[in-house]
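Notebook entry, structure prediction.
Reason for the run: the old model in the group folder had no record of what sequence produced it. Starting over properly, with the input documented here first.
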Amino acid sequence: FDLPVKQSGAFQLRLALRDVASQRIGALGQFIHVPNLKNGELALSGILLTADSSDDPRSDIVMKRFRQGTSLAFAYTIYNASIDKTTRSPKLKTTTFVFREGVKIYGLEQPVKTTEQADLQRISTGARLQLGPALTPGEYALQIVIEDQISKRTATQWTQFEVIR
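New structure, fully documented this time:
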């Protein structure tokens, strides 16, 4: 769900839920950083993870647990990219990294396609990552680094996920 905030900065987000059927209660908390989009700085949204095989009962999108062999789709939004005056489009490069226990095990650099974007100040993009045999069960971190090749600015975002059998 979208949660509007009135100002940028660091926040602790807390959420509590009650299951009406079982009366069980659950809670979670997470620190988040809300960028100041009004100042024109390059920024990234959080990263949304989902499994292509959503009918797999062992995939847990909320807990970010995905079965080995699954194709993991991830999406995010890039805010405030610079626009080239000649081409009237941004020139962005994304690098996707996967880490396990602080060690980089995967990295891929590619340009961001912006030709079909309705709003060049809010560019929605993403990719897929095959959770193949090299990603053995365990905890991983996915990091996205965006480079604005016009302004030479960068923005980074990351999320964690778990690979299960």
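Summary: The mean pLDDT is 91.
The old model has been moved to the deprecated folder.
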